[in-house]
């Protein structure tokens, strides 16, 4: 299944936050959404997963207009891991992961053995089987993030939208989360702050600046010191790391470009 955004504009409180962005996420493609704080990444993602209605433009999910799809259909197809996971229900970890099966059920259907098996497999994928009986609210920020990913894996979505999914995770689990997501073989749209992780995992990146598209393409073709300086106002050097084969970005200490000394 593909996700296509065509000339999407989003106004919030009369401010134009997202300015006519077009992008595509194809089956199996890992697409990164980059840009500094306040550049419109979360707003664009929230529009893509149907929390915000676009002011103009079109979003197609599997070729169908997202706004015209039944909510139950888009809920089944689109998985979301967002930045904020303030769930205050007193549920166990396993119960949270089982919530991922909800979009696949009708009002009267009960949990089937297959649902339990899928939820256990999702917990196993994030390495959290031993936490199944723990209260979700007792977990650390990083553990919560991994359980939210497991819930989303249990949903078996066809497109995954991630808003800063590596927040709270130490480097091992940042790499684990992105590797799991990449291995799913579905379309992924992820807002990322870490440009080095973007270079390692993204097939394509879209870079936002002030709600507009500043650049798009494969990271090794478009991430240049000039682009980083223009978008993030910071100097850096970029080289191909012989150990990984990916670009590595090293930020220069000192003053951001244009800052008063
Ligand atoms: N409901 C709203 N009303 C008015 N402005 C808003 C609203 N929601 C977000 N904004 C503004 O829109 C801009 C883009 O915010 P958004 O959260 O999309 O940026 P972002 O790129 O995800 O930032 P960050 O990297 O800090 O998470 C910001 O200036 C924000 O203050």
Automatic annotation (TrEMBL):
GO function terms (MF aspect): ATP binding; ATP hydrolysis activity
| Keywords annotated in UniProt | ATP-binding, Nucleotide-binding, Transport
Q: Which Gene3D superfamilies match?
A: P-loop containing nucleotide triphosphate hydrolases (3.40.50.300)
Q: Does the keyword ATP-binding apply?
A: yes
Which InterPro entries does the record cross-reference, listed alphabetically? AAA+_ATPase, ABC_transporter-like_ATP-bd, ABC_transporter-like_CS, P-loop_NTPase
**Do you know which Pfam families this protein is assigned to?**
ABC_tran
Q: Which residues form the ABC transporter domain?
A: 3-235
Xref: PANTHER family: ABC TRANSPORTER ATP-BINDING PROTEIN, HEMIN IMPORT ATP-BINDING PROTEIN HMUV
Full protein name: Iron chelate uptake ABC transporter ATP-binding protein
What organism is listed for this UniProt entry?
A: Acetonema longum DSM 6540
Q: What is the lineage of its organism?
A: Bacteria, Bacillati, Bacillota, Negativicutes, Acetonemataceae
């Amino acid at each position: 299944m593909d996700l296509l955004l065509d000339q999407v504009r989003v106004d919030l409180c009369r401010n134009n936050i997202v300015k006519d962005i077009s992008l595509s996420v194809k089956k199996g493609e890992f697409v990164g959404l980059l840009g500094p704080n306040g550049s419109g990444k979360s707003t664009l993602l929230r529009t893509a997963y149907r929390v915000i209605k676009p002011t103009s433009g079109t979003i197609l999910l599997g070729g169908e207009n997202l706004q015209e799809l039944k909510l139950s259909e888009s809920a089944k197809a689109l998985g979301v891991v967002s930045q904020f996971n303030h769930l205050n229900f007193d549920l166990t970890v396993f119960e949270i992961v089982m919530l991922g099966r909800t979009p696949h059920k009708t009002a009267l259907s009960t949990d089937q053995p297959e649902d339990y098996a899928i939820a256990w497999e999702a917990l196993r994928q994030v390495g959290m089987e031993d936490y199944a009986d723990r209260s979700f609210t007792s977990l650390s920020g990083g553990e919560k993030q991994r359980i939210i990913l497991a819930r989303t894996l249990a949903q078996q979505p066809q497109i995954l939208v991630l808003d800063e999914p590596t927040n709270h995770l130490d480097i091992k689990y940042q790499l684990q989360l992105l590797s799991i997501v990449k291995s799913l073989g579905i379309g992924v749209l992820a807002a990322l702050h870490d440009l080095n992780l973007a270079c390692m995992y993204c097939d394509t990146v879209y870079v936002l600046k002030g709600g507009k598209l500043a650049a798009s393409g494969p990271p090794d073709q478009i991430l240049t010191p000039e682009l980083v300086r223009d978008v993030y106002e910071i100097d850096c050097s970029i080289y191909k790391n012989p150990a990984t084969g990916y670009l590595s970005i090293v930020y220069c200490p000192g003053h951001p470009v244009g800052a008063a000394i």
